[in-house]
Write a structure and sequence with these properties.
alpha/beta, D-Maltodextrin-Binding Protein, domain 2, 2 domains, 5-stranded mixed beta sheet, 4-stranded mixed beta sheet, 9 strands, 28% strand, LysR substrate-binding domain-containing protein
């Protein structure tokens, strides 16, 4: 048995793609692991493909750590510079994490919070770096301030004493597949096609 090493950002839920890949590619299985900085593992060659959060210019934090900590996007220039391929998958909505007894928790889980409802509250962090979100959620749990981050990230880092809701009008983040050009082959393309919704009977 061969294994495709897939590293994914917190908040990404790739199980359905793994199952479809496993059933479609004989002799291969997707071996997944969550990491705060999946791009680092792709660049180092310790992962074959990463499912990466791309924040864009409206968020604190970038697509990676170290030299890439401030990189907001993986565009053509960045792909050429680092020898990468990138395929966008979907957009995430913004969310806000507040103390569990905050007035906005009276809203249903599907009802977005208006930013005006947070006026006067302390904004602790507005960004995508999982470690920083974790630290600030501990402060929110102590009934201080709020954190704005991608809603799926907040959901995955849930803390006791913290509630989260969708933030109306907040900027979205994108989730993308990223892999090295020197690792591009039929197996990787099969996984890419699976994530993009290609049917088992479809050709590339």
């Amino acid at each position: 048995m061969h294994y495709l090493r897939v590293v994914f950002a917190p908040g990404v839920v790739p199980g359905k793609w793994f199952g479809r890949f496993d059933s479609r590619v004989p002799g291969w299985r997707a071996a997944g692991a969550q990491a705060d900085d999946p791009l680092r593992h792709v660049l180092a060659g310790t992962a074959d493909i990463g499912i990466v959060r791309i924040p864009g210019v409206h968020w604190d934090g970038g697509v990676g750590a170290g030299d890439l900590a401030g990189l907001k996007e993986i565009g053509n220039a960045e792909m050429d510079a680092h020898g990468l391929h990138r395929v966008l998958l979907y957009e995430e909505t913004a969310g806000v994490a507040v103390p569990a007894d905050h007035p906005v928790t009276a809203l249903g889980d599907g009802e977005p919070v208006d930013p005006d409802d947070l006026t006067g509250d302390v904004l602790l962090y507005r960004g995508v770096v999982p470690s920083v979100v974790r630290e600030n959620l501990d402060v929110v749990a102590a009934n201080v301030g709020h954190v704005v981050a991608p809603r799926p990230l907040l959901r995955s880092l849930n803390r006791r004493g913290v509630a989260h809701r969708t933030l109306s009008g907040g900027p979205g983040t994108q989730v993308a597949l990223v892999w090295r050009r020197d690792r591009d082959d039929e197996v990787v393309q099969q996984f890419v096609g699976t994530c993009r919704g290609r049917r088992a009977s479809s050709s590339r």
